[in-house]
Amino acid sequence: MPLLTTGKPFIRALEKSGALGVYVPLEGGFEGRYQRRLRASGYTIVNITARGLGDVSSYLTGVHGVRPPHLGKKNIGQEAAVGPVYFVPPIATYQLENLPPKSKGLVLWILEGVILSRAEIEYLTYLPKQEPRIKIVVEMGGERYFRFSPLEQTVQAA
């Protein structure tokens, strides 16, 4: 059975621009093929969702505090009424430190990118310029076929 797509134009566009906005068919499957092509070409992929991301810059590149749900239990007089704060290491920089030696870099594949604000998307276009080993792919919506464009053009069109 022949390959349906080699993924080379996608990989070249990702390496050139650093951040891509993709539109995938809603029935799924295509993004997995392109992720396999990226892994085969030497990239490490981290899948995250845009829902609940919070402050994108601190979540990806800085230590940030999170409060887990209290589930109805409160500590009276010991800590804040909303619960304790746990500090979480940054996702992108932690993954960069632990990349395999022969890896080309890290690809952050962000699902449900439609809910991101314009400022957050602009930060995601800036991040690969700040750290060249990081590449960003943001799923911006559905389409009948898999298509991609630089994330900067996606921001301008919105």
Automatic annotation (TrEMBL):
InterPro entries: NAD(P)H-quinone_OxRdtase_su_N. Pfam families: NdhN. It is an enzyme of class 7 (translocase). It is a peripheral membrane protein. It catalyses: a plastoquinone + NADH + (n+1) H(+)(in) = a plastoquinol + NAD(+) + n H(+)(out); a plastoquinone + NADPH + (n+1) H(+)(in) = a plastoquinol + NADP(+) + n H(+)(out). Its EC number is 7.1.1.-. GO terms for cellular component: plasma membrane-derived thylakoid membrane. GO terms for molecular function: oxidoreductase activity, acting on NAD(P)H, quinone or similar compound as acceptor; quinone binding. NDH-1 can be composed of about 15 different subunits; different subcomplexes with different compositions have been identified which probably have different functions. Belongs to the complex I NdhN subunit family. NDH-1 shuttles electrons from an unknown electron donor, via FMN and iron-sulfur (Fe-S) centers, to quinones in the respiratory and/or the photosynthetic chain. The immediate electron acceptor for the enzyme in this species is believed to be plastoquinone. Couples the redox reaction to proton translocation, and thus conserves the redox energy in a proton gradient. Cyanobacterial NDH-1 also plays a role in inorganic carbon-concentration. This is NAD(P)H-quinone oxidoreductase subunit N. It comes from Gloeothece verrucosa (strain PCC 7822). The gene is ndhN.
